[in-house]
Design goal:
single chain, 403 residues, alpha+beta, 2 domains, 7-stranded mixed β-sheet, 6-stranded mixed β-sheet, 12 helices, binds flavin-adenine dinucleotide
Amino acid sequence: MSQTPPVVIVGAGPVGLALALALIHQGLPVVVLEQRLQIPNDLRATTVQPPVLEHLGAWGVLDEALAAGRRVSQLQYWDWPRRLLLAELDYTLIEGDTRCPFRLHLPQARLCEILLAAIERTRPGTVRFGHKVTSVVLHDDRAIVTTQIHGGGEETFTTPRLCGADGGHSVVRQAMGIELGDEGVADTFLACTADLDVLPIIEARLSRALAPASYLYASQDWALVMVMTDAVRFLFRAVPDPEVSLARDAINERMRRFLGAEIGGRLRGLGLYSVRQRVAPSWHQGPAALLGDAAHGNLPVGGTAMNEGILDAHHLAWALAEGTPRAMDAYSTQRRSCALSLEAQDSETWKALRARGIWRRFSRNQYLKRISIHPVAARAHLLRLSMLEDRIGGGAVPDLDHE
Ligand SMILES: Cc1cc2nc3c(=O)[nH]c(=O)nc-3n(C[C@H](O)[C@H](O)[C@H](O)COP(=O)(O)OP(=O)(O)OC[C@H]3O[C@@H](n4cnc5c(N)ncnc54)[C@H](O)[C@@H]3O)c2cc1C
């Protein structure tokens, strides 16, 4: 009896692992090749959005994710220098639109551990850590992938289906001869994590508690605050000099000036990330397909890029199970179009954070105040932020745009 050769996935980030689990659920054999020796504990994604939570449910890992993360049901926008709450949006507004009307704050590394454990429970040995892909040769009907094994030796895999979930510097994408454009917005961000007890210090001067997901707008600066189960994550605009951005004294000073909190010994982790929005012109070619950061990059201000990649994984698993050129074309076209519209949405979020000039800030703030008292507009806004724009439906949504 002939055995179906496995789908080979390069990269055991959240997207590669999600694809492996989705393919296992489709009954397809799979091998994941990962250069690192274990899941890295980078300060990257914290937000898992409702449509991804729905898929985690279908893959049997939602309960575990919910137990490990923090459910977030409120989102706030603040005019920070005035400590004025501009808008508070409650996820009960989208209760009728999704089985998961909340976002989950869960560190990316923890989500990876949950996906990995589920894969290993079903198909032990699927994920090969310490396998760095050094060469990819593409033929019309198969790909030949060579890995350098940590500790010595090489292994070669021949597969009719190769998936590149290997991040921004994807070797699979390079072998496909596809380049990411550099026309999108680029910026550098500082992520830092602190103990939960900085919250009461920040909140001491507020009329009410911060929501676990809060956007703080100031005239020359901004911060995103994301409260997790055991820590608070802050995202700031980075200053041009990386050394200054990452210096603990500079961070302490920034927290003191911006948030009114002395962070002192409460700082747990730091990361500086330069990110550019970009979308590959094509996502599949012969035996190879791209997904996640290998296919698109996005700014971290909307909490969408990893989620986008996991939605790619869901669609690609379906297309691979169908096994037709038409299904692969649909994957490439539909997911690329979603990536482009999320890129546009997140660049609006980024512009709102930076809003230069009094008039821009005034109109942004007015827009937020208006949506907060208009349930139809607030629902549409929340659905967009939750990557559920397609569920807004045909009802009249008032045009409260701030531009
Ligand atoms: C500060 C910050 C905050 C963010 N917050 C959010 C958020 O809240 N929500 C959200 O949705 N997104 C967020 N993101 C984006 C998110 O982190 C990325 O979109 C996500 O990591 C992409 O996952 P991936 O699996 O596609 O790629 P990666 O996570 O980059 O994983 C790729 C994997 O491939 C492996 N690899 C690469 N090359 C090879 C090779 N040659 N051989 C073998 N293995 C290889 C790498 O080691 C890596 O493990 C944030 C990003 C940043 C920087």
